[in-house]
Specification:
It comes from Bergeyella porcorum. The chain is of the alpha+beta class. It has 5 helices and 7 strands, in the order E-E-H-H-E-H-E-E-E-E-H-H. Strands 1-2-3-7-6-5-4 form a 7-stranded antiparallel beta sheet.
Length: 159
Amino acid sequence: MLQSCISTNPKAEYLEEEEMNGAQVINIKVPMWIAKPAMRKSLRQEGESPEMIALVNKISSIKIKTIQSENAEKIKKIATSTKKYQFEDWITVKNGGYLVNFSVKQKGDDIKQLLIAVNGDRELVFIDMKGNFTAEDISKAVQYSENKSIEKWIRFNEN
C-alpha cells in the first residue's frame, strides 16, 4: 500500500537533475494520516511541550529525500543549492557530526515551506514540510533540534 510513497526519482523543486548524477536518491512522500499521529506520539513520549505537539498540526505535507554519494564535495554542493530556488537560509545548527540547516520560503510573515537539510559527510537528508508556520514555530523547531540527538530527531518513531 505504501510502495507508491517511495521512489528513486531524483527530481525535487529545489534540486537540479545534473547535480544528482552518480548519487543514490530515495524520495519518501509521507502520508499525513500516518505521520501526524506518529510524530505526536513520539513527542508525548519524550515529554515535549504542548507547543511542539501543536506545531505538528500546522504541517500539511512532508517529503523526505535522502541522497548518498561517495563524493563528499558533491553532497556539500547539493546541500547549498537550495538558495537558487528562493529558499532563505535562516540558521545552521551543528549537532554531533551533522550540520542541520533550516531554510524557508515565505511571503511577508507567512512561512509556507520549511526545508530542513541534515548534512553528513557522504549523506544528505532533506525534510521538506509545507504548511502555515510562523517565525516562532521555526524557532521552536531549531531549539528542539539543538537539544536532541540528530539520529533520534529525524526518525518518526520506531515503535
